[in-house]
Every structure is written in C-alpha cells, then in structure tokens.
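Chain A, query sequence.
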Amino acid sequence: MNSNVRNLFDIKRLTGYKRPSPLILINGLAEQSESWFANRRQLARHFDVKVPEILVYDGDSLHRHIEAGGEVTVDYLADRLATYLEEFVQRPPYHLVGSSLGGQICLTMAVRHPDLISKLVLIAPSGLYGDENLPVMEGVKRSDYDSLVKSVFHRRSHFATDGLVGAIEQKFQSRKWKKGILRTLRGTVGHSVSDLLEQVPHPTLLIWGSDDRVISDVAGSIRAAERMIKGRQVVIPKCGHAPQIEKSRLVNTLITRFLRDRLKAVPPMLDPVRFLHKEARPTPSKVGGR
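Chain A, predicted structure.
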C-alpha cells in the first residue's frame, strides 16, 4: 500500500491530531476581506483562520436583501455571521477579530451568543464613543478616492499607493457596488455599541492607532472601553485606522499572544495610560490662550 494511503488510515496519528482553534476575521465598512492580506498567513500558523464574506457590496445575497426592502444594519450583519458559523464552521467556541465596523459586529455577536465565543480582538473599533469621520462618504459624493485611502493611514505616502487608490476607484465605477456601500452606510453610520460594553463577559483585546483620523475621539473610546469586564487595551504610536495593515507584524504578535494566553504585560510604549496622559497635556496654543 502506498505510504501516503497508509498514513491516511493511521488511527494513532488521526486520533492524536488536534485542529487549531477557529479564528474568524471580520472586516470593516470601507474594507473587504482582502484587507487581511498581511495577517492571514501568519495567524494561520496557530489558528484555523476563516474570513467570511458577510459584506460584499456587489454580492447577489446583499442585493436580494436590499431589493426585498431590508436594511443593512449591524444586527443584520451579526445575523449573517451567526449563520455562517452555525452552518459552515460548527466548531465553537470561536475567537473573533474585527476591524472598525467589524468590531461592532463582534461585540453584538458576543452579547447575543456568549457561549459561542472564546475571546475577542477589536482593532480600531467604531461605535464605542463619539462620532466617526467617514472619508468613504466624501469618496462617494466627490469621487475623491485619493483622500479616502490616505485618511486610513498614518504613513500615507507608504501605504496609500497609486495602485490602491486605482483599485478603490475601479470599485466605485460599479453601480451595484456603489449601491451596496451606500445602503450599508445608511444602515450603520451612527450606530453605537456603547451599551454593550459592560455586557461582554469574554477576554477582549482592543488595539488602537494613536493617529487614527477615522475614530474622532480615540481617547474617549479608550475610556469607554475601560467599562469592559475583561478588556485590555494597547495604543500603537504613529498608526492610523488600519493597524492590521500599517503595523501588521506587531498586530499579528499581539493577537497571537493574547489568544494563546501569552500576552503577560503590555509594553510601556503601547500603554494606553501613556497615550491618555499625552493627550491630556495642554498644547502650546492652549497654554498661550489662543
């Protein structure tokens, strides 16, 4: 018998194999699943990584929902995630990692289905406190795709390349895609998950960028997240609204260590207390009374 076939029926080997824990990546409003390109391979070394396509702006499923009179809300997206996990993964409990709007979906899932969730990682989550600056809306209204892309990053010249801007512009040329994102904006902008924070019983890591220009009040969001029962927070210096791209190596390390219970202490440079203290210092203009 071929050695590969023998290995297939090696009962001792099969019974000794343990599948890694499922890790679900949920992208944000202005992103698609491709936004995890810098994370999937690294995280897959330790976890069974899934990237559900619950929000595809030109997808037939989304447009059937819209044509039937449905709204694209956080609750709707959380329902889609729950269906995906129940039908196509079926191995709870799950680690959920969500970026921006994806963080709101993760929190909603954790409160609705606490027994299905193990740990959460929220990357620049929206909806915790204050308003959002939504360059995607300006991108739609004014076709200003360059500003849209650059607003996401701190190192704009490095990450907001002509190729990326061109790819976003090409997406907006599709009427179906544009309708999908407009209806999603209508149903999700201004949605708050602040009232859910105290209800989440799971260990949660929140990762912020110190120079996030989409979250209007990062300091206020950090203070709001302090209400979480088992929350831990880090603030990455010189980083915008997409830490999973802009600081991918650090974010991958933080996620892996946290989910494997190996994140013993937050490095001083990432300490949110340090960031809040810096934010509270008066600027020269304030000191001068201008």
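The longest strand covers residues 117-123. Residues 59-278 form a domain with the Rossmann fold fold (CATH 3.40.50.1820).
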